[in-house]
Amino acid sequence: MSFDLRHDWTREQVLALFNLPFNELLYQAASAHRRHFNPNEVQISTLLSVKTGGCPEDCSYCPQAARYATGLNAHKLMDLDAVLEKAKAAKAAGATRFCMGAAWRAPKDRDVEKVAAMIEGVNALGLETCATLGMLTPDQAQRLKNSGLAYYNHNLDTAPEFYDSVISTREYDDRLNTLEQVRRVGMKTCCGGIVGMGETREHRAGLLQTLATLPTHPESVPINRLVQVPGTPLHGTEAIDPLEFVRTIAVARIVMPASMVRLSAGREEMSDELQALCFQAGANSIFYGEKLLTTGNPDTAKDQALFARLGLVPMPAPERGEHVHLDLNAVESAA
Ligand code: SAM
Ligand code: DTB
Ligand code: SF4
Can you tell me the distance from the alpha carbon of 299 to that of 333, in angstroms, rounded to the nearest whole number? Predict the structure, then answer.
């Protein structure tokens, strides 16, 4: 085990990292990044909402909660063939991981059967698979593992002490329990949170400390910047200072140095310069494609231009060792 892989971070130590002078923090984060990764490679994931809206939960950031009038068109679980068409397109565009999201509190067993077929189909295309379906029973976790699911995304979202002001229909411990079921059957965890929900720096430190003291660090750590959707209770929240967002990425990189830190939701509102700072701070994964689940994401051409400007290249899929290709030639002149 690498000397910097620790599971004993205290809240004070994580907060002390947040409080470092910006340049020192970025230097430490960039150093940790280089110890574990090629700093010029970025892992590319594409998201698909396979079941949209109509969710019974009250997550106050989420446009898919049925109780908030967000104008979203709900959609039942997609057909297998339609999902595989989207997965093929994602692969052709250069993604190595395909993440299927469903607006469920928890799936029914018959839903899991249908998603298992999607996972088998996506795996057969040569993509890494990820799913985010809500809370899982032990048997459901095992069924997904048996279908070949590599990653399960289930976020802690925020610090334990801020959680109750964001969600009331599900406990923090429920989330920890689902993560335990996922680990127990040998799937990798994708687990992070959202910033910009009105939380304090202490809360951000609390989220990262909780993640970094799980029995194993989540292999992927999505850091989402709240996408403010009209109709959700968090619409109108004061936006997080962009440099504080960069600090959050940097601290995530230092405390979970061998994990993929994903610059997730919120990129559409970020400048190239802010994203470049996030990559400098150790972010090494993005969602690629015009849509997240229900909200927008930068156009692929814009991301290709950003990669070309920064000399970033897509990270090959680990276990397959395939080299992926984003067509950067078309945009080289923009660099
Ligand atoms: N329903 C399942 C669940 O909650 O676990 C899976 C889908 S849910 C949409 C996945 C994650 O998306 C949430 O945990 C949250 O972190 C993120 N998310 C949802 N709405 C968001 C928003 N407006 N801005 C940023 N992240 C958001
Ligand atoms: C994660 O942490 N972020 C993604 C993924 N996991 C499933 C979802 C972001 C959703 C943003 C709001 C939307 O598009 O609905
Ligand atoms: Fe439902 Fe997931 Fe949205 Fe919460 S985050 S309302 S559980 S879709």
Answer: 18
Long-range pairs, 16-21, Cβ under 8 A, ≥24:
17/205, 17/250, 17/251, 17/254, 17/255, 18/201, 18/204, 18/205, 18/247, 18/248, 18/251
Active site residue 191: no
pLDDT of residue 317: 81
**Region of residue 148 (left: phi > 0; alpha: psi -120 to 50; beta: else):** left
Active site residue 99: yes
Query: Residue of the nearest CA to atom 6 in ligand 3?
Result: 65
> How far, in Å, CA of 122 to CA of 120, rounded?
6
User: What is the token pair recorded at 228?
Assistant: 């403010």
- Residue 105 near ligand 3, beta carbon < 6 Å: yes
Q: Is 32 helix (H, G, I), strand (E, B) or coil?
A: helix
* Rounded Cα–Cα distance for residues 143 and 152 (Å): 12
pTM summary value: 0.95
Q: What is the pLDDT of residue 326?
A: 53
What is the mean predicted confidence (pLDDT) over 34-54?
Answer: 98
278 is catalytic: no
Q: In testing the pocket of ligand 3, which one of 105, 167, 171, 197 has its CB within 8 Å of the most ligand atoms?
A: 105
